[in-house]
Specification:
Length: 524
């Protein structure tokens, strides 16, 4: 039968090759030759088998027949066992990564009875695999190589699903240690993957779950994997219609964003940056605003992720850079102490190695002193262990443009990685500033960031200062630079000028911290 199938495939192949050929006679000849070849081989094969069975009968005789049958049966059993071993090996090892699959993982969990399970999901892997399976496989292999490099040999790592990996920590581990190991691995896995000319920035989600009495390893693993999907799809299992509407809304917003620059719908607002020692506004952070004719004012937290995902980061980033430089050069005219304007730059913009050239050209076009421009990078971007990025940042600093690390404290940067980069400012994230005077943990973090700033001789700014009490605590503990609603919300260009000219109001806000009465929080 297999020969028949093979011959059919061959003949069908010949037909395909010859579709449209003019020489039908040649084609018929080939088809006939193939057919005869197959018939001949099939006949020879069957004939040989028949002859063999006859010879066995003759040679062995009646007495030998059983011994031969037994030996054949023994061999068949051996063969079956060998096949089963191969099959098991195939089940136990993932075909692409070569890592153990979920079966040995579940068996080990079963044997241990309790313990900690860490899982990683490569977000968007299915989508990447859908449009470029080869690239997806290479990204996956790089991720696997990173996991293997980072994980101690005694841990069992399994490739449990297309873009999902699990680590079994067993029962003799402190869950906090497991959690911090998982965080560190996720951070390393999130580093840029370079394949040929392409760069992929993997996004990694993690889970850490405990196997306890009353739950089977199978259920724990299934639930953990399902929780990644629920996160992505926001309860799609139950709200599939709602999820579809969300996808449609996101798509519509993406379309609107594509035309927003041409329709002049973006604007910059400026939030004052305060130097408390000099009682002076040193500059502003430029924050993008999108006014859509029907949607109204859309917050950046909603549309910036879509800008990034839709590949518009460069285009929008260039608009921000130009608008900010234009404004800074307008304000800069003639003042002895020019204002510095800070812009937010995303990781995607830094993937373009020409970014330093764009900066230089923009500064030139607006006749702007490079020291009047600062770029803000989030901590994750700034601490990525990447030689190209380090070179790019060095180029930017060589231009005279300043670099600030935004949202500091929220990422996983090790101070040693940060020390390899030279930057000019650290912005303590609002998370640690909110109620800092009441929260010992935030106080510890602020203390160490302020000390780091002193050690590296760089400015430290506290973002999101909303109350006098927060300002007072930070000021008393060595922080000198501030930004937040307590001083001012982001303002239009005209209102910003009014703010800097009203020095008396700023002085009142900055009066000796101990004299300041408690002021109510300005947001909920
Ligand atoms: P960010 O760079 O950390 O900017 C600070 C955010 O905190 C701003 O929100 C600002 O309005 C807000 N903020 C400042 N002081 C306070 C305060 O006292 N209390 C509270 N609750 N919030 C305060 P915004 O303008 O909504 O921007 C959010 C984020 O969007 C920014 O965070 C930044 O990551 C991103 N973003 C804004 N503009 C741009 C841009 O031009 N390009 C890029 N790539 N991202 C931008
Ligand atoms: Mg910022
Ligand atoms: Mg920030």
């Amino acid at each position: 039968m297999r020969r028949l199938a093979l011959a059919s495939v061959f003949v069908a192949g010949a037909c395909l090759v010859h579709v449209g050929a003019e020489d039908l006679a040649t084609f018929a000849l080939i088809a006939a030759a193939v057919g005869c070849g197959w018939a001949g081989s099939a006949w020879r094969h069957d004939w040989k088998l028949w002859r063999l069975s006859q010879r066995l009968e003759v040679i062995s005789g009646e007495g030998q027949k059983i011994a031969i049958a037994e030996r054949l049966a023994e061999n068949a059993k051996g063969l079956e066992q060998a096949l089963a071993t191969i099959e098991r090996r195939l089940i136990e090892r993932h075909g692409v990564s070569g890592l153990p699959t979920r079966e040995p993982l579940l068996e080990q969990m079963e044997r241990d009875g309790s313990g900690v399970l860490g899982t990683f999901a490569l977000d968007d892997f299915e989508r990447l695999a859908g449009f470029d399976p080869d690239l997806a496989e290479r990204v996956l292999l790089e991720i696997v190589a990173r996991i293997v490099r980072m994980i101690p040999a005694e841990r069992l790592i399994a490739h449990v699903d297309q873009g999902h990996f699990a680590i079994w920590y067993g029962k003799d581990i402190d869950p906090l240690v497991a959690r911090s190991e998982i965080d560190a691995i996720a951070y390393a896995l999130g580093g840029r993957v370079k394949i040929d000319q392409r760069e992929i920035l993997p996004s990694i989600a993690t889970r850490c779950a405990a196997l306890v009495d009353g739950i089977t390893p199978q259920i724990l693993l299934t639930r953990t994997l399902a929780s990644f999907a629920l996160d992505d799809m926001q309860d799609t299992y139950e709200l599939s219609d709602q999820a579809i509407v969300q996808v449609q809304q996101r798509y519509a917003m993406e379309q609107d964003l594509r035309g927003a620059i041409h329709r002049n719908e973006f604007q910059l607002h400026f939030q004052p940056l305060i130097d408390a020692h000099r009682q002076w506004v040193t500059g502003a952070e430029a924050l993008i605003r999108w006014h859509h004719p029907e949607r109204g004012s859309v917050p950046p937290s909603l549309f910036i992720p879509i800008v990034e995902a839709a590949g518009l980061a460069e285009q929008v980033g260039m608009w921000v850079l130009n608008a900010a430089a234009r404004q800074a050069s307008e304000w800069g005219g003639g003042t002895a102490d020019p204002l510095r304007i800070a812009i937010n730059v995303s990781a995607n913009q830094l993937h373009d190695t020409k970014f330093a050239e764009y900066l230089s050209r923009t500064l030139h076009n607006h006749s702007l002193d490079p020291a009047c421009l600062e770029i803000e990078l989030t901590e994750g971007v700034a601490s990525a262990d990447d030689a190209d990025l380090a070179r790019l940042l060095a180029k930017i600093r060589a231009l005279g443009v300043k670099i600030a690390i935004d949202d500091f404290g929220t990422g996983y940067s090790s101070f040693s990685t940060l020390r390899q980069l030279t930057f000019d400012k650290i912005k303590i994230d609002r998370e640690f500033v909110t109620d800092v005077h009441l929260r010992p943990q935030s106080q510890a973090i602020c203390h160490s960031i302020i000390a780091l700033g002193r050690g590296l001789d760089i400015r430290v700014l506290a973002e999101g200062v909303e109350t006098a009490a927060e300002y007072r605590w930070l000021s008393q503990h060595g922080c000198r630079h501030f930004q937040g609603y307590y001083f001012s919300r982001p303002l239009s260009a005209a209102d910003f000028v009014t703010f800097i000219n009203d020095r008396a109001s700023l002085a009142a806000l900055l009066q000796s911290p101990s004299d300041i009465p408690q002021i109510e929080r300005m947001t909920s």
